[in-house]
Specification:
By secondary structure, this protein is mainly α. It contains 4 helices and no strands. The chain starts with a helix and ends with a helix.
Length: 179
């Protein structure tokens, strides 16, 4: 650039300082003009390709959103499974504590009922089993008695005669006692 300025000074025979100032001013003007034109070219290119760039950015944004949603859903699933397992553990622990409490209550209730003399369900079951066994024995004896009565049916016809004599003896007995 300095060479250009010297060449211009030789042609115009101007003083060096004024020539340098005018050359500097024109150089700055040219640079500003080039910057302005570059900006205008970038603006025109952005307008021409802007829609394509915008659509490309939308596509990239959409794919990024899908990826982040997938990751978020995966993390949400992990958190949900952790919370479910924690809830199951808490429920199990609470159930164990409840079972302990229930056992203590049942034991204390059973002791109190025993002190009062109230039979337990085991006692009642044993009693029902014993009643069933006795009912079965009674039923078998009744059947055997009915069978033996059927075999001795002719002997029963003689029995009413004995009863008649027993009645007559009973009538006679008070007479003897009265005499």
């Amino acid at each position: 650039m300095v060479k250009k300025l010297k060449a211009m000074a030789d042609k115009k025979n101007m003083s060096g300082a004024s020539l340098f100032d005018s050359a500097l001013a024109s150089s700055v003007k040219e640079s500003a003009k080039e910057i302005w034109l570059a900006g205008m070219g970038a603006f025109a290119k952005a307008q021409a390709e802007g829609r394509q760039v915008f659509e490309a950015l939308v596509k990239e944004g959409s794919s990024l959103q899908k990826k982040t949603q997938g990751v978020a859903e995966e993390k949400f699933g992990e958190v949900t499974s952790r919370m479910t397992s924690m809830a199951d553990e808490v429920t199990a622990k609470a159930g164990k504590q409840w079972d302990k409490l229930e056992t203590i209550f049942e034991d204390r209730t059973a002791k109190a009922l025993k002190k009062l003399g109230v039979p337990t369900s085991k006692d009642m079951q044993a009693l029902m089993d014993r009643v069933d066994a006795l009912s079965a024995k009674v039923a078998t004896r009744a059947k055997s008695a009915a069978k033996s009565a059927a075999k001795t049916a002719p002997a029963k016809t003689a029995a009413p005669k004995k009863r008649a004599t027993a009645k007559a003896a009973a009538k006679r007995a008070p007479r003897k006692a009265a005499a």
